[in-house]
Design brief:
By secondary structure, this protein is mostly helical. It contains three helices and no strands. The longest helix has 12 residues, at 31-42.
């Protein structure tokens, strides 16, 4: 497995666009824009979900 980080310019772009995240989310209803967003943000990502402590009970 090869893990690659995002380029610095991309991280800065994400930080600047965070304020308009709801507008960008609505734009993902447009199929072409949805493809671009999925490609830029989610391709090759490994997501790990960590539940809250009160959900996991010690055996």
């Amino acid at each position: 497995m090869i893990l690659m980080t995002r380029p610095r310019w991309f991280i800065e772009l994400l930080k600047k666009s965070f304020a308009s995240r709801f507008i960008l989310a609505k734009l993902t209803q447009i199929p072409g824009f949805r493809y671009v967003i999925n490609k830029l943000l989610f391709e090759d990502d490994i997501l790990i979900y960590i539940p809250n402590d009160d959900i996991v009970k010690n055996g």
